[in-house]
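Narrative of activities, Objective 1.

The group set out to show that a structural description can be obtained from nothing but a protein's sequence at a throughput compatible with the screening campaign. Below is one input-output pair from the validation batch, recorded exactly as produced.
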Amino acid sequence: MLTVALAMTFHTQGGKPGLEDLQKLIAAKGASAANIVRGLYKAEDLKKGPNIIDQGTRALFAVDAGPGIHEVEVVSQGKSLFKLTSLGDGIFATVQQFNDGDGFPFDYVIDGKPLRKNVEFEVYNPNPLTQTPPGGFKGELRAMGEWKSQIFPNTTRKWYVYLPPNLDAAKEYPLLVAQDAQWDRQWIANGIENCAREKIIPEVVGVFIEPGQMKAGEYSNRAFEYDSLNGSYAKFLHEEILPQVEKIVKLSHDPAKRAITGMSSGGICSFTTCWERPDSFSTALTFIGSFTNIASGESKRDGGHNYPFMVRKMDKRPIRLFMQDGENDLNNEHGVWWLCNLQLVAALKWKGYEVSWNPGKGFHSTKQARRIFDQALKFWIGEK
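Output recorded for this entry:
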């Protein structure tokens, strides 16, 4: 009867299954738990070892081990962390509670043999300041249509402007520019509005821009625009985008009240914009920044991995940095993201720049960015 009762109370939290209830169902080893687990994944994913499902710091691990008697465990760096519970019909699962910010790669192991290696695990307590504001979104996230760039020829891109509630036509507003609008505009806009409502920051205008497309739906110009170490993107902002924004709202021209943020290649783009135009943007908020050799060019060495040495050798510029990365970030032909971020942070601090360094244990994701975004905004323009 316990299993039936729990199955009937199984509910959703934030659009995902209620993992606390599922944890109890798994402990009861009822058939309903196996049915619920099957319903959460595609059959082929269960057979190869799926990604975790998480709610805050609680996470579900599950596999379909097939017929027979098996031992299924989660192993990280050669150490067995825990075993999965058999729910019958080949389904094994467990729900585990972790600490805020825990992250590690793991393998699903069946009867001593790896089923899938290097699965990413990273969990955080939810940050209400990057979620939908209480009572609904009050500002306007205005779609500005498609922009055909002259600075980046043959490209078009969608872009958006966030306008605070009760817009004051006579007021000059601080400005936050963000790359990769196709992925990140809503949660960043949530952060701006929530933090202003909570008086963490003043009201801010947000500008969200997609990377250039030469073919609809394909962001083929992204690496060229974001990863190159030159002033082209800053020129694009100042000559093409920001004049259009100022047709609908007044913007502050105080560099201290203008910041730019981005994830991955959008992160290095943010740094480059401040580096090239410190007279206009004082603060870069970078997350999982790609300070690696993506923009290698014909020389194979023209990428962002050069920034730490440029910072050390060149005159100090009036910019400030909020930087985040996880120790399990990417490691590929372009470089090691974690090490490249550490190199840049060390160079900036050695040179005397103001840097807020926020390391984590995560991967190449925006999870930690969403968790600490209010801290980044406060670093930029919050109460001192």
